[in-house]
């Protein structure tokens, strides 16, 4: 029987960490503890033993050193290969062999799954590294700088053919919509290929800010495509995402210079930015006007002072000439 001792929910092991912790130790302070482990799940296709299947959980695409996970048929029916899961359960120790103690992890609960994490090749990891090295554009500063110059920042918005996300977006912008120069492109967002085809057709002399806009619902997994991320990265222009609901965070959002939880959130961001710049411009204009007034008053006072000094000198001269 397992005890019901628990550890902090925030402490999650990797398969490698559990193997290192338990494989060469007959006894551990964590024996009988409810543990959490995260990794890529793979069904092995092995036959059922009693009421359980023995599958694998690994840290990466390389399943070497993977942890055997003991999964009930009921839980297994809801799992997908190559998906990144967090399981809760207990370590079970078997026979001792040359590699150490034979370990398995009995899954009692699926604590979470991250659809945005997938198995990456070395090329994919290099792409992620290059994205970080290039840095992330300060979208607020870029747009504010153009508005301050009296320009309407060009913003290219890619959204679905039948999407109504633009309605929420425009409603959030209110009367500041005219502060920006929007170019709307509607396309099929069903596959990475159709999205890439749409953005590659765009040719503007002044590279705009590119926005991926879509509401919530099914089909958001297309934005987890590493191929799409690479194509957008290769464009070399700043881009943001306004995709789904607050709970959605696709891979493309993590690649973006800035990600917004919803189209409405992006609309509020632009509205607040435009109003802030307008207020700032008005304040600067007022202060400049007041400064100019002060300078003019100072000039008047200086001229008056010169006149007074002139009169005094003239009177002194008259006194001396008597």
Automatic annotation (TrEMBL):
KW Metal-binding (keyword) present: no
GO terms assigned for molecular function: exodeoxyribonuclease VII activity
Ranges where the Exonuclease VII large subunit C-terminal domain occurs: 155-298
One Pfam match: Exonuc_VII_L
Presence of keyword Manganese: no
Keywords tagged on the record: Exonuclease, Hydrolase, Membrane, Nuclease, Transmembrane, Transmembrane helix
Matching InterPro entries: Exonuc_VII_L, Exonuc_VII_lsu_C
One GO-annotated biological process of the protein: DNA catabolic process
Source taxonomy: Bacteria, Pseudomonadati, Bacteroidota, Cytophagia, Cytophagales
Domain of life: Bacteria
Annotated GO CC locations: exodeoxyribonuclease VII complex
Parts of the chain that traverse the membrane: 303-321
Name of the protein in question: Exonuclease VII large subunit
């Amino acid at each position: 029987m397992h005890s019901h001792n628990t550890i902090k929910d925030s402490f999650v092991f990797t398969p490698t960490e559990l193997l290192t912790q338990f494989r060469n130790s007959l006894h551990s302070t964590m024996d009988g503890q409810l543990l959490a482990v995260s990794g890529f799940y793979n069904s092995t296709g092995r036959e059922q033993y009693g009421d359980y299947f023995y599958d694998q959980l690994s840290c990466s695409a390389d399943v070497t050193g993977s942890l055997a996970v003991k999964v009930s048929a009921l839980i297994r029916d809801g799992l997908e290969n190559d998906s990144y899961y967090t399981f809760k359960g207990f370590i079970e120790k078997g026979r001792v062999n040359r590699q150490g103690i034979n370990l398995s992890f009995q899954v009692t609960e699926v604590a979470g799954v991250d659809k945005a994490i997938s198995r990456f090749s070395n090329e994919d990891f290099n792409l992620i590294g290059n994205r970080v090295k290039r840095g992330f554009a300060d979208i607020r500063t870029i747009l504010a700088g153009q508005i301050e110059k009296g320009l309407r920042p060009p913003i290219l918005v890619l959204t679905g053919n039948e999407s109504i996300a633009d309605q929420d977006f425009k409603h959030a912008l209110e009367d500041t919509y005219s502060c920006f120069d929007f170019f709307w492109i509607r396309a099929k967002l069903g596959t990475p290929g159709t999205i890439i085809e749409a953005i590659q057709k765009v040719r503007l002399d002044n590279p705009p800010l590119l926005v991926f806009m879509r509401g919530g619902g099914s089909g958001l997994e297309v934005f987890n495509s590493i191929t799409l991320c690479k194509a957008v990265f290769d464009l070399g222009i700043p881009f943001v995402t306004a995709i789904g609901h607050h709970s959605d965070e696709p891979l493309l959002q993590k690649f973006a210079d800035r990600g917004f939880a919803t189209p409405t959130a992006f609309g509020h961001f632009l509205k607040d930015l435009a109003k802030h710049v307008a207020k700032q411009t008005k304040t600067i204009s007022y202060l400049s006007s007041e400064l100019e007034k002060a300078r003019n008053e100072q000039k008047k006072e200086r001229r008056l002072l010169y006149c007074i000094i002139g009169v005094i000198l003239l009177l002194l001269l008259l006194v001396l000439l008597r």
